[in-house]
Amino acid sequence: MPFVNIRITREGATAEQKKQLIEGATQLLVDVLGKNPATTFVIIDEVETDNWGIGGQNVTELRAAAKNSSTLV
Amino acid sequence: MPFVNIRITREGATAEQKKQLIEGATQLLVDVLGKNPATTFVIIDEVETDNWGIGGQNVTELRAAAKNSSTLV
Amino acid sequence: MPFVNIRITREGATAEQKKQLIEGATQLLVDVLGKNPATTFVIIDEVETDNWGIGGQNVTELRAAAKNSSTLV
Amino acid sequence: MPFVNIRITREGATAEQKKQLIEGATQLLVDVLGKNPATTFVIIDEVETDNWGIGGQNVTELRAAAKNSSTLV
Amino acid sequence: MPFVNIRITREGATAEQKKQLIEGATQLLVDVLGKNPATTFVIIDEVETDNWGIGGQNVTELRAAAKNSSTLV
Amino acid sequence: MPFVNIRITREGATAEQKKQLIEGATQLLVDVLGKNPATTFVIIDEVETDNWGIGGQNVTELRAAAKNSSTLV
Fold this sequence. Notes:
The structure is a homohexamer.
Chain A: E1 3-9, H1 15-33, E2 41-47, E3 52-54, E4 57-58, H2 59-66
Parallel strand pairs in A: 1-2
Antiparallel strand pairs in A: 3-4
């Protein structure tokens, strides 16, 4: 009965991509630990880029800076 | 000083229902553990049905399937 | 399919009390929102009193101070 | 590589204030524990006032009551 | 820069299995959303079976009951 | 009434350092948003290095590798 919480920035993940995250995370728990998928929960939280920081900067700024570079975050 | 986080799918819970969840969860901590309600926090997160999976399927799909059945989730 | 996370300080909650929290939180979701108990998860986290702060002080200190007063937290 | 999750009520925090929270929380981990800011995450969740309870009441009610008093929450 | 929190019951997951969860969850975010693994965090929380409830019962009880049946949770 | 959850690896943070995290996080919310410290919660979770992954590797491995380098994580 695992619970998986995936937090990503809100930057256009599609319904199809979110389905793949749910399927993939559920299958991972089945494959590695033999968990029952019927009682495996996955919750995806999409967070505004202003509300997510890394290295002391928010992702809005990081994305703007990355336009001039090849940095992938 | 307990902290309670209730996560539900965003499917039309009313302000009144959410008040009842806050009151009920707070009272539960008072009744069972004698906690002080004044320092008991309750946070309700409402999650899009596309973003919640169970059994490897998202709730949007489960709700559509349930229309043809009596399954309650 | 709600998910409830109850966080309390680790101060001797018994297995019986934790059962009551699980039962009570599950029933609350049934009563207020008509949720299916079979797919309702409750997770209790017990947090060391050194690791929980309120008002800028940790609970270890608050408990020591409260011994000389009637404050309930 | 710390992870900091700050939850506040959604009551008009500006992008600038949220930047300050991200910078401040990141710096705190550097100052106290010598953590590497480059791998420090901060996520801010803004929660509707109907969805946050304290003392068994939601913040929407507490804010209305506070208009007639000097209580700060 | 995703953040994945996997919560499982504390029932003997090995260091090797936890490595596989970390690798698998990281790869899932790369495959589905093209995220940078270098800034992908995975945290596994192992929860005591007394502290996890489903269907209003804790997992300690469910495991005891399951010994006499083929139920997988 | 903010809630701050700080997650760090369990690598010997002292009670004094954790006090500083609680004080600092509480003060940050006061300084930036004018929040009331009396209703500000801080919870610190210390996570085993086997249970925290970054870049697809757990911190136990990263620490071992870092002994031969100057990498700070």
